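Q: what sequence does this backbone want?
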C-alpha cells in the first residue's frame, strides 16, 4: 500500500489532466460559437485564483520565487483567457486557422510542460536560506517522494509491516557513476528513525549485508539517518561537504566517512 500522500498526488495529476482536456474542449468550441466565451473566462480566472490562492506550497514559497511560481501556475489560465477573447473579437478564415493552431499549441504545451507541477517545484524550499535551517522532518510528512529511490523506499521499506515504517527518503546524492547516498528521516516530528534491520534490508534490496550501513548524521538528531551502500573507499572531504550542504541545508559537516556505493533499486 502506498502512502496517503502518493494517492493525493496521483489524484491531483489526474484532475490536472482532466482540466487540460476540458480547457482544450472549450477553446475548440470557441472557434465555432461565442456561447463558451464567458463560461470559459470565468472558469479560467476562477481556477487560477483558487489554485494559486489556496496552495500551501505556493503561499509558503520564498519571496524571491513566489511571484515567479504564481505566474507559472497561472500561465495556462491566462493563455486560455487570451485565446477565448481572441476567438470572440476576430473572424475570418485566416484568423480562425491561426486560432486553431494556437489552441493546438496551448493544449500540447500545457499537457507536456504541466505548469502547475513546475510552479510547485519552483516554490520548493530553498536549500541555503535562513528560513530553512529547520530542515525536515518538520516537512517530510507533507511531501511526496521526490525521486525513484524515495518512491521505492515508500512502497517497499516504509509500507505498513515493512522494515522501516514511518520513515521516508528525503534526499539522494549521486557522487559519481558508482556511488550515491540516501538520507532517511522519520515522518513524524520529534520521533527518531526506528532501528532498521540490516539483515532484512539486505534481503529486501538483495545486497550483501557487509555493503550496507545506516549511521547517524554528524550534527543532526536521531530523526535523520544516512544510508550508505558499498565498501569504504577514498573521496575528497569537500565531496562529503557538498553532500551535507545540498542534502541537509544548515548542517555543518563535523565528520566524514567515504564509501563506494551503488544506487538504490
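A:
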Amino acid at each position: 500500500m502506498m502512502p496517503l500522500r502518493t494517492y493525493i498526488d496521483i489524484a491531483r495529476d489526474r484532475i490536472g489532466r482532466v482540466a487540460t482536456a476540458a480547457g482544450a474542449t472549450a477553446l475548440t468550441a470557441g472557434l465555432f460559437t461565442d456561447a463558451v466565451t464567458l463560461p470559459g473566462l470565468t472558469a479560467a480566472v476562477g481556477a487560477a485564483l483558487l489554485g494559486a490562492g489556496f496552495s500551501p506550497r505556493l503561499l509558503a514559497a520564498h519571496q524571491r520565487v513566489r511571484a515567479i511560481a504564481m505566474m507559472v501556475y497561472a500561465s495556462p489560465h491566462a493563455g486560455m483567457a487570451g485565446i477565448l477573447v481572441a476567438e470572440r473579437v476576430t473572424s475570418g478564415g485566416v484568423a480562425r486557422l491561426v486560432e486553431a493552431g494556437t489552441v493546438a499549441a496551448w493544449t500540447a504545451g500545457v499537457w507536456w510542460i504541466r505548469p502547475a507541477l513546475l510552479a510547485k517545484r519552483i516554490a520548493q524550499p530553498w536549500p541555503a536560506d535562513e528560513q530553512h535551517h529547520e530542515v525536515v522532518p518538520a516537512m517530510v510528512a507533507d511531501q511526496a517522494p521526490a525521486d525513484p529511490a524515495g518512491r521505492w523506499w515508500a512502497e517497499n521499506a516504509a509500507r505498513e509491516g515493512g522494515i522501516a515504517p514511518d520513515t521516508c527518503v528525503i534526499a539522494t546524492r549521486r557522487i559519481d557513476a558508482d556511488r550515491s547516498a540516501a538520507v532517511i528521516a522519520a515522518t513524524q516530528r520529534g520521533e527518531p528513525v526506528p532501528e532498521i534491520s540490516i539483515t532484512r534490508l539486505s534481503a529486501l534490496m538483495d545486497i550483501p549485508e557487509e555493503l550496507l550501513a545506516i549511521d547517524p548524521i554528524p550534527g543532526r538528531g536521531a530523526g535523520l539517518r544516512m544510508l550508505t551502500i558499498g565498501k569504504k573507499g577514498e573521496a575528497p572531504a569537500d565531496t562529503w561537504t557538498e553532500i551535507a550542504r545540498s542534502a541537509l541545508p544548515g548542517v555543518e559537516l563535523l565528520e566524514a566517512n567515504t564509501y563506494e556505493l551503488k544506487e538504490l533499486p
